[in-house]
Amino acid sequence: MAARSVAVWRAEGRALRRELLRWPERRAVAVVLGAWLVLALLAYADGQRGPAGGHAVSVTQHVGMADASGMRGQPSLGMLAAGRAGLPGELIAWVLMTIAMMGPAALAGVRHTSRNSLPRRRGRAMAEYGAGYLAPWAIYGLALIWLAHAAGWTASWEATGLALAMAAGWQLTPWKRRCLLECHRSVPLPPRGWRAEVASARFGLRNGASCLGSCWPLMAVMTTLPAAHLWWTLGLTGFVTFERLGRHPNRARRLVAAGLCVTAAMAVVAAMP
Amino acid sequence: MNEYGYDDPDDGNDGNDGNGGTDDNGGGGGNGGVQTFVRVDVWTLDETDPILVSYGDAVAAMQAQASIDPTSWAFQAAIHGSLSASPSPEWNQCRHQSWYFLPWHRMYLYYFERIVRQHVIVNGGPSDWALPYWNYDAGSGRNTLPTAFRNPTRADGSPNPLFVSNRRPGINTGAGLPAAITSPAFAMGRTAFTGTAEFGGGAASPLGQFAGQTGRLEQTPHNDVHVAINGLMGDPDTAAQDPIFWLHHANIDRLWWLWQQQHADPTDPLWSGQSFSFVDDDGTAASLPDSGVENTLAQLNYTYDQVAAPAADVAPTPTDGAAMAEWPAPWPQRETAAATAANPGEDREMVGASDGPVRLTGEEARVQVEVDEQAAQSLAARASARRGRAHLDVDDIDAESNPGTVYGVYVNLPDNPSDEDLATHHVGNISLFGVERARSPRGDEPPHAPHVSMDITDLLDQLAAAGTWTEGGRIDVAFRPIPLEAPAAEPEAAAAALADVRHPDTPITIGRVSLHYS
Q1: How much is the pTM?
Q2: Angle, to 10 degrees, between the axis of helix A86-115 and the axis of helix A122-151?
């Protein structure tokens, strides 16, 4: 068994910060931070204009799904979602949220791609990895959006509690464990030519698919939130990142399951009259 | 005892005449009144030496204990690795492919040694018992399995607890481990601890989990000797069940101890503050931080039966054509451009790689690495001079199981090479100890592809000076299996069988070979 002191945790934090700011991966860090900035600005704008007055609105509204009142079309995602921009807007909002939430965890793959590519094609390789990573998430988002429209989902704290409980249960399944381990596997990256382009995208696709298998219920939670989505987005991102970048995936998986149970209880409390 | 305070192997002493007389610098004196234990070279002991006899008795006693007993043989071996489908939380804890490899195993041996010593004392053996080490690189036939471990029975006809039948054919009958496998020269020549091409391995990093961070000592001789002996030793989940495991690791620990005489361990709290838990001799849990095992004498009350390595300036180079086994300590020092950095490998730039994978089945395989002109020129311009260090990486190594073959890695090796060519162009080894666990971890760790990194700067400089390679030119990388040395008395057919290391049914795939400049 291994034990870690506070000093070790601090040192790990410092090492992570050092790594995040290293060229050229910091371009990817900038993209993730940019996604967060846009989410925060939109949440602020929505809060200014929305009926909740001062509260950030739900991501379900961001992706154009139902809001707390069960009505679609409430102010959400600024100019993009809430039906104004239609399906493309909803999809863009979803991808934006995916970049913000999954981006920190995906930085490991971005870093690996960057450092194992020739300097002149590093930027392209990282972009190809990113595109591959986002592809399965975009498909999943489309499916969720379609399902929400078709089933007329209503955002509510009850639904959030249920989704969180389901996510906690998923954490403890062998499929989850397998997917989480798959997130750590790489593919050989040839140095040049079409093989290099395909390999970078394939690596991203493989990582994205395994991360989707690992975290799909967590992201589904985002479609059920009736309010204050930005804080929930932050919290769930913390769970995903902790689990993916931790040195002990099984321990992290169980801790996240416990955290999700607590969060589910919070959602149930919020649902009480 | 000789004038250095250690037992000379040639003085006729059995190496067990009391052990308060050494310190880490080879001087006399004890350790502040606390008993100091001295680990001795197993080849200085004969089969009936009390150290080996009492070790065998302790092994037998521990093997008789129930596996749920934390001080039993099965439990102690399982701390390293276990095939059990329902492992105890204390099992499967070994740390490989990272900079924790050396401190974790030092702690593991320390507590195991205490447990064995308890048994030795109970059985009436020497109260100052300490684990012997197997220095397979000492020449004079010491690259063969120590005789006390080879026979199914002891001299009195009783079963020999130190014997394991499923070791590689030839090992139990005196086949030798080749110098290319046993020499620690590549590791001991490194001045920095941290980094994949450095002595102790790369730092465990949250963002760097896709590839192993194996250090040079962990790869050669550690991994290679495991694979060469094979059987239980060939798999981390069974390795510690073979009694020779502990002598092999005592030797790895000794090499770290020697290296420490001249070099510094990491100061990063990420390394020094990391603690690991084990089982003490009374069966209770005990833990130590890495910083608590850096000085074996002051902190753990043990040392080795030799003086520390002398200064390095008289060392032969490892590429001068001499047989590796003939290289005495000290080993040549290979200064790195960023030896003091936390992780020297971090500043590397990839300048070339092979276009496709390589498949190894026990015969020589070659692959070309084209250096990207633009990348090399850009780096040269940035440095305003020639390139810094050059590292050859063997990436994404994979196999369904460990075929049990060690491969030498050679750069620009001529066709039909002479022994001198092989010595000159040899840059390191790959072997797949732990590949099963890398693919599917049993402990709580992420999977990662085995990966080996070798500093080939000196060789490239030599080749450039000899006019056989020009800066920016293509690099040819050869992988050649390294067979065991047949015993002199071995029949011809048996010797031929030892030399045949083909493994067509368990191929190794190397995803890529890449070149990095720093």
Answers
A1: 0.85
A2: 150
Retrieve residue A246's tokens. Answer: 């931790």
**Cβ-based contacts of B93 with chain A (< 8 Å):** 1-2
- In chain B, which residue's Cα lies nearest the Cα of A11? B270
At B367-409, the pLDDT tens digits run 999 998 887 776 665 554 445 789 999 999 999 889 999 999 9
Q: Which two tokens stand for residue B497?
A: 């069988």
Residue numbers in A near B512 (CB within 8 A): 116, 188-190
Residues in chain A: 273
Crossing angle between the packed helical segments A249-271 and A157-171, to the nearest 10 degrees? 160
H or E stretch at B274: strand B274-279
Three-state SS string over B29-42 comes to CCECCECCEEECEH
Look at chain B and count its residues. 518
Spatial contact of B474 and B369, defined as CB atoms under 8 Å apart: yes
Quote the minimal CA–CA distance from A86 to chain B in Å.
Answer: 37
Q: How many CA atoms lie within 13 A of A257 on its CB side?
A: 16
Six token digits for residue A201: 């995208």
**In this predicted structure, what is the pLDDT of residue B379?**
65
Chain segment A223-235, per-residue pLDDT in tens: 888 766 788 889 9
- Is B355 an 8 Å CB contact of chain A? yes
Higher pLDDT, B31 or B272: B272
Q: Is B356 on the interface with A (CB under 8 A)?
A: yes
Q: Is the dihedral of CA B151, B152, B156, B157 positive or negative?
A: negative
Taking residues B470-485, what's their average pLDDT? 92
Contacting A residues, span 177-206, partner chain B, CB-CB under 8 Å: 181, 184-193, 195
A131 min Cα distance to partner chain B (Å):
19
In which band, very low, low, confident or very high, does the pLDDT at B14 lie, cut at 50, 70 and 90? Answer: very low
